[in-house]
């Protein structure tokens, strides 16, 4: 497997992470259409994020990271998504892992190694969880991917699908079961260049085309014994693992809110510049249009407030429940989708033209429904909780 080498980080002038993200988003927006067209992995964007000090933003300060909480991470993700959302999704997975691994059950030396690689080299990490037969583990069931004990470690074989960022990762956390009589299940840390691990380029979706979420195939991939970084009996797992639920509930909403804001920004420019001959003035002057734009602003404003409030609670030590995390994800992504759909409705053929970015924003924002936790499981769980069932 070919791994693109990472460039050393370049020192930059002091600025806030959000200011850096805003500046980068403008640059990313210039090539977002190209990445959408080609579905190529955004290596250059990742290099620029590292140069700006944003790749290890959520890693603890004591490990050399930025020590950012969920609130700051949400703002950065939203701004990056306004420029190029596939890059933002790859960054979400990076932020969640770097923020939560140091507080989990991993051996400390492996946490230090992974975080140091991110800080110094811009190395990316994500989990390989979804399988062709199993789907997402959040819906239950044991993975077919199996880790077999060897004399000095583990041999892992299986296939993973929808592996976000796969072709750009340095580290993968492979969700697998052991071959024990009473199998344990959990994460095995695998270097992306390990012999026996290959990436098959199968990712060709409607939207979010540059995430590189290809298939990962493992054939007798050997890792040391301690790379079974967190394996437990199935009954000992919650659906996301300690500490990750709030991040998975909040950051996708931030990303797709950023997409909605990008759509809104294009729409506003279009309405100010479009002057139909029968009207003789910009569409922006029409009260009906103004009201419709106000509806879009309403949806975005609700998302911004909800995400900020949820993130602040987590950062101040008031974590919310798993059910609340799922509801926040569903509400914010559905609001973002509704906002972009309203923008599309106002623009007619202009909105669906491939010459304009609005149709791309629409395809991207629809992908918010795909990420776990999904609407049906979230609402079913919330309903059962309310009913005491």
From TrEMBL:
<dbReference type="Pfam" id="PF08028">
    <property type="entry name" value="Acyl-CoA_dh_2"/>
</dbReference>
<dbReference type="InterPro" id="IPR052547">
    <property type="entry name" value="Mito_Isobutyryl-CoADH"/>
</dbReference>
<dbReference type="Pfam" id="PF02770">
    <property type="entry name" value="Acyl-CoA_dh_M"/>
</dbReference>
<dbReference type="InterPro" id="IPR037069">
    <property type="entry name" value="AcylCoA_DH/ox_N_sf"/>
</dbReference>
<dbReference type="Pfam" id="PF02771">
    <property type="entry name" value="Acyl-CoA_dh_N"/>
</dbReference>
<dbReference type="InterPro" id="IPR013786">
    <property type="entry name" value="AcylCoA_DH/ox_N"/>
</dbReference>
<protein>
    <submittedName>
        <fullName>Acyl-CoA dehydrogenase</fullName>
    </submittedName>
</protein>
<keyword id="KW-0285">Flavoprotein</keyword>
<dbReference type="InterPro" id="IPR046373">
    <property type="entry name" value="Acyl-CoA_Oxase/DH_mid-dom_sf"/>
</dbReference>
<feature type="domain" description="Acyl-CoA oxidase/dehydrogenase middle">
    <location>
        <begin position="132"/>
        <end position="221"/>
    </location>
</feature>
<dbReference type="InterPro" id="IPR009100">
    <property type="entry name" value="AcylCoA_DH/oxidase_NM_dom_sf"/>
</dbReference>
<dbReference type="InterPro" id="IPR036250">
    <property type="entry name" value="AcylCo_DH-like_C"/>
</dbReference>
<dbReference type="GO" id="GO:0016627">
    <property type="term" value="F:oxidoreductase activity, acting on the CH-CH group of donors"/>
</dbReference>
<dbReference type="GO" id="GO:0050660">
    <property type="term" value="F:flavin adenine dinucleotide binding"/>
</dbReference>
<dbReference type="InterPro" id="IPR013107">
    <property type="entry name" value="Acyl-CoA_DH_C"/>
</dbReference>
<keyword id="KW-0560">Oxidoreductase</keyword>
<dbReference type="InterPro" id="IPR006091">
    <property type="entry name" value="Acyl-CoA_Oxase/DH_mid-dom"/>
</dbReference>
<feature type="domain" description="Acyl-CoA dehydrogenase C-terminal">
    <location>
        <begin position="253"/>
        <end position="372"/>
    </location>
</feature>
<feature type="domain" description="Acyl-CoA dehydrogenase/oxidase N-terminal">
    <location>
        <begin position="24"/>
        <end position="94"/>
    </location>
</feature>
């Amino acid at each position: 497997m070919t791994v693109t080498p990472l460039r050393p980080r370049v020192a930059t002038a002091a600025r806030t992470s959000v200011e850096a993200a805003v500046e980068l988003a403008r640059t990313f927006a210039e090539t977002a259409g190209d990445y959408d067209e080609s579905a190529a992995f955004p290596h250059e964007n990742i290099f620029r994020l590292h140069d700006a000090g944003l790749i290890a933003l959520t890693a603890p300060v004591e490990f050399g990271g930025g020590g950012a909480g969920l609130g700051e991470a949400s703002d950065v993700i939203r701004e990056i998504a306004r420029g190029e959302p596939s890059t933002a999704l790859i960054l979400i997975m990076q932020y969640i892992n770097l923020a939560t691994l140091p507080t989990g059950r991993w051996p400390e030396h492996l946490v230090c190694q992974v975080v140091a690689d991110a800080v110094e080299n811009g190395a990316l990490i994500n989990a390989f969880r979804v399988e062709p037969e199993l789907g997402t583990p959040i819906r239950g069931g044991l993975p077919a991917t199996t880790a077999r004990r060897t004399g000095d470690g583990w041999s892992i074989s299986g296939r993973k699908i929808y592996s976000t960022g796969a072709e750009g990762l340095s580290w993968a956390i492979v969700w697998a079961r052991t071959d024990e009589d009473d199998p344990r299940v959990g994460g095995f840390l695998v270097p992306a260049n390990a012999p026996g691990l290959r990436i098959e380029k199968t990712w060709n979706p409607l939207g979010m085309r540059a995430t590189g979420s290809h298939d990962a195939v493992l054939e007798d991939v050997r890792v040391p014994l301690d790379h079974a970084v967190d394996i437990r009996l199935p009954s000992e797992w919650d659906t996301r693992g300690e500490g990750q639920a709030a991040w998975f509930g909040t950051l996708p909403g931030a990303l797709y809110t950023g997409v909605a804001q990008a759509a809104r920004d294009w729409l506003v420019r279009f309405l100010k510049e479009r002057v139909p001959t029968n009207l003789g003035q910009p569409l922006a002057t029409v009260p009906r249009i103004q009201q419709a734009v106000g509806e879009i602003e309403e949806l975005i404003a609700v998302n911004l407030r909800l995400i900020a409030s949820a993130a602040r609670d987590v950062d101040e030590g008031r974590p919310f429940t798993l059910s609340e995390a799922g509801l926040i994800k569903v509400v914010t992504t559905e609001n973002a989708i509704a906002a972009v759909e309203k923008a599309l409705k106002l623009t007619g053929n202009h909105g669906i033209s491939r010459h304009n970015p609005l149709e791309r924003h629409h395809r991207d924002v629809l992908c918010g429904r795909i990420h776990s936790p999904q609407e049906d499981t979230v609402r079913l769980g919330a309903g059962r909780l309310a009913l005491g069932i």
